[in-house]
């Protein structure tokens, strides 16, 4: 059974208020360091599967195929108030916590679409087609600020 990121965030947000700390008590996380650890994990898994060290090619593969999705997921964690990331504006941390915790269906549907890779324009067209309140849609999109998740992987 696959659980969406939005459902997991909603469950977590109902049980706890926004927190700037990771379970290890460390505070804000560095997205680039975490991404490198994920790329190293990917390299290890590919190496195990192949039976030899996959090397730099496996790292490049992770950045080519997973980087954008990883950044977007981190941005969603940040605005939901689950993980504070150094690379995102501290003022946006937890801005969607109340909407998620209260069960705001519109925010939930928009988060699902953002997590699935939809861009702002796609969401606006979807909202217009379904006659959704545009002011509320724009408010949620501004809080998510998905374009802020477009970070440069070469900053490592």
In brief:
The chain has 156 residues and is mostly helical.
What does this structure look like?
With 156 residues, the protein is an all-alpha fold. The chain has seven helices and no strands. Helix 1 packs across helix 5.
Fold topology:
Layout: H1 5-15, H2 31-50, H3 55-80, H4 97-101, H5 105-115, H6 120-129, H7 134-144
Descriptive keywords:
mainly alpha; 156 residues; single chain; 7 helices
Report the average pLDDT across residues.
85
Q: How would you sum up the global shape?
A: elongated
Instruction: Report the oligomer.
Output: single chain
What is the number of E strands? 0
Strand-residue proportion: under 5%
Largest sheet: none
The parts where pLDDT drops under 50 for at least 5 residues are 1-24
Helix content: 55-70%
What Rg do the Cα atoms give? 17 Å
Structural class: mainly alpha
Number of domains: 1
Topology order in helix (H) and strand (E) letters: HHHHHHH
